[in-house]
TrEMBL record:
Gene3D superfamilies: 2,3-Dihydroxybiphenyl 1,2-Dioxygenase, domain 1. Residues 1-121 form the VOC domain. PROSITE patterns: VOC. This is VOC family protein. CDD domains: VOC_like.
Amino acid sequence: MIDHVGFTVSDFERSKAFYGAVLGALGIEPMMQYDVGGVRHMGFGRGKPDFWISSGQPMRGRLHVAFLARSRAEVHAFHTVALGLGAIDNGAPGIRPHYHPNYYGAFVLDPDGHNVEAVCHGKE
């Protein structure tokens, strides 16, 4: 299906710190950073980088990206860390039964206003 996704951010260092912390709560680590032609890239993942941010002209509009949490506790950790970094709450951790009975997610707005989610599909 999708191998990786990436987008540009308005402040590379700020977004790198934000995603490093909130994804760290999900066991997703910074894996690779490189610069090409003055554009900086940072890849995060579990095993391989599959989520990327880059410097450059920030995108317009609001992106939604959801990261798979391995437990509901990770969803809570993600949400807590994000709010501690100044993210805007866009949906507290909880069941979203309109998706399916075990859909447990939390939503925040990142430093560029993108809707970032952590979701667990299990019962715990």
